[in-house]
Protein: Pyridine nucleotide-disulfide oxidoreductase domain-containing protein 2
Organism: Thermocrispum agreste
Amino acid sequence: MTAAADTADAVVVGAGPNGLVAANILADRGWDVVVLEATPNPGGSVQTAELTRPGFRSDLCSAFYPLGIASPVLNALDLQRYGLRWRHAPDVLAHILPDDRCALLSRDIGRTAESLDTFAPGDGDAWRRCYSEWQRVRDDLLHAVTGPFPPAKAAARLVRRLGAADMLRLARMVTLPARRFGTENFRGLGAQALVAGCALHTDLGPDSAASGVFGWLLAMLGQDVGFPAPEGGAGSLTKALVARLIDRGGRVYCSRPVSEVLIARNRAVGVRDVHGELVRARRAVLADVPAPTLYRDLVGEERLPARFVGDLERFQWDDATVKIDWALSGPVPWRAQEARTAGVIHFDADVDGLADFATDLACGRMPERPFVLFGQMTTTDPTRSPAGTESAWAYTHVPHGTTDRDSVRKQADRVQALIEQHAPGFGGLVLDRVVSGPDDLRRHNPS
């Protein structure tokens, strides 16, 4: 497609997953929808490519989707009709401690409980109790997380379901740091590290307010639905969203960066792209871009209330990321046997180590002992690389503003050295390695 229609009911700026889901929902309601994407391909953070060598498929950014498979919004789109297939590793998550003890999260709750009991007898039963509480609030909580904001209807259902006393207990839990949540519910390091490590997926350290509920949410999702990956790569999810939208008359145009949101009588009425072409919107303009990009660059501060412009000054970007992709000649030889069957591995920190890592980042220091999230993609989805091999990745955070290649390379080397400690012989399996720093990731996905 090389040219957009001049007018549509809705114009969506950005073909990332949120923009594509919104476009599909509007198309389901009979709206004529046009999506304009700045980069050559749709998907934003949800794309796949052969980064390392032919036959080894790597996800450019996101890879596992527990909230995706559980989302009532995404499930309502029935993307299986458009080719989406979810694949699961034999086990969900392994958290490897510095001494190579390992806490395992499996969709088989008996396996999870057995693993946690090796750290402290009784923690398996405590995990079952946490999971029972999750099942009690699951549906309403997922509607609250994935539905319109503010989630008033879902919150009202939760109050009716729980009653005042249990709702207050839930409200307290929402504020807890992951460390406190862990020590209140478990005696052993295994379960405590699982929850705190899951909180780091949301970039919240174990002593940050509300990190406990995010760690609990992801851990319980892992217990419930696993950490699945789309068969063939994350890009399969994007392909399904695009195909579904086109099937309903929607249009997606790539390499069409939007330069301006058109305003008339204090209402968004369309957009102009960098080529000067206009697309007018009869009913709505939606933007799947960062807030500063939308309001400063596309709308313009001169059109905004002074107080709102002041709020934008307080917008805080997250820490940056270094990602490494590997083509491996065989499976990773983890010392911790449980990690060999997991799709996702955390290492190598207990809760105190996670706190040290988060403190380094908060102080703008490059962590000398990084906390690492590792993905075994062929273990999860055998289509990702040739039989007997492994397509793998790891990422860790670095201070915001890190751009120099030398710092990026050194941190990637630290990550690989840590892997070698926990999986001796890893280096000998490496066929190819690609290191992506913050600038590289921004080129893949400017948002």
In short: Residues 109-222 form one domain. Residues 378 and 390 are 5 Å apart (CA to CA). The first helix runs from residue 17 to 28.
